[in-house]
């Protein structure tokens, strides 16, 4: 190793693994009786790449089902080259894959890239919801105990395991077919954006539900820390023909469902 310190050697090895280029490292790797320096390095490189590909498979099992072993492997290695892991945990490897797929042209002749990106994001948010932070959910009894005079300024809090998802493609149909291992529907793009929420319910099961624009706007207001009156104003702008009490009743109905679903947290 000459004057190379252990830290420098470790950094050089890390750089070579991430780049796949061992040219600067090879002089520091001793040959064995039957393997050259490069061959010894390639053993580590292939092991590292395989482990990262396996991590991506664990995070995107349905995307792998869709693409198949060959194309998923190529995607995984290309993604790894452009997005080397920077986290201490393999759980985070793949967080940039939905964005990466938007311009990943090797798959563009098989599926629309926008569709692949949406499907990957849908899958990633399922994992994110499952691993989301713990927080005690707001109960229906606690909601009923709020005095009437406090409702206008009342602010609700989304549970940290709730995620928003928007798409143009028929992601839910394709997702269900992949889960059930049924024949896949053709990816179809709508001109209208669809809204969904993905969350971990109190029974620690991840669920998703597609919602209308009204509920999406209302939940967005909750996320933005707007109070009950402001949520009502937002929905009134979508329904100018409704009376004030009708809008308020609509928001209360949404709140009741959110509490049952475990979308809101205490505090």
Which terms would index this structure?
267 residues, mainly alpha, Outer Surface Protein A, domain 3, three-stranded antiparallel β-sheet, two-stranded antiparallel sheet, 5 strands, 51% helix, elongated
What does this entry look like structurally?
The longest helix is centred in the first third of the chain and has 23 residues, at 37-59. This protein has a domain at 135-267: Outer Surface Protein A, domain 3 (Alpha-Beta Complex). Helix 2 packs across helix 3, helix 8 packs antiparallel against helix 9 and helix 9 (228-238) crosses helix 10. The protein is mainly α. Strand 3 and strand 4 (206-211) form a beta hairpin. The protein is elongated and about 85 Å long. Helix content is 51%, strand content 11%. The strands form two sheets. The chain has a three-stranded antiparallel beta sheet.
């Amino acid at each position: 190793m000459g004057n190379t310190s252990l830290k420098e050697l470790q950094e050089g090895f890390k750089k070579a693994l991430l780049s796949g280029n061992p040219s600067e490292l090879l002089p520091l790797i001793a040959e064995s009786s039957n393997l050259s320096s490069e061959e010894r390095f390639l053993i580590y490189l292939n092991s590292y790449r395989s482990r990262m590909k396996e991590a991506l498979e664990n995070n995107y099992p349905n995307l792998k089902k869709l693409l198949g072993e060959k194309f998923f492997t190529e995607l995984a290695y290309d993604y790894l080259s452009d997005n080397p892991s920077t986290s201490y945990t393999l759980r985070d490897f793949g967080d940039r894959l939905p964005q990466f797929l938007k311009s990943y042209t090797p798959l563009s002749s098989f599926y629309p890239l926008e569709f692949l990106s949406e499907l990957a994001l849908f899958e990633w948010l399922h994992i994110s919801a499952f691993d989301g932070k713990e927080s005690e959910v707001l109960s229906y009894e606690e909601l009923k105990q709020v005095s009437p005079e406090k409702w206008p300024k009342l602010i609700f809090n989304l549970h940290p395991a709730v995620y928003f998802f928007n798409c143009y493609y028929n992601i839910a149909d394709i997702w269900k077919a992949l889960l059930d291992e049924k024949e896949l529907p053709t990816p179809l793009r709508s001109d209208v954006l669809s809204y969904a929420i993905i969350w971990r319910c109190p029974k620690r099961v991840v669920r998703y539900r597609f919602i209308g624009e009204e509920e999406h706007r209302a939940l967005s207001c909750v996320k933005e820390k707007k109070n009950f009156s402001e949520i009502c104003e937002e929905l009134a702008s979508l329904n100018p023909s409704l009376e004030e009490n009708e809008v308020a009743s609509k928001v209360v109905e949404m709140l009741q469902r959110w509490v049952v679903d475990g979308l809101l947290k205490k505090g």
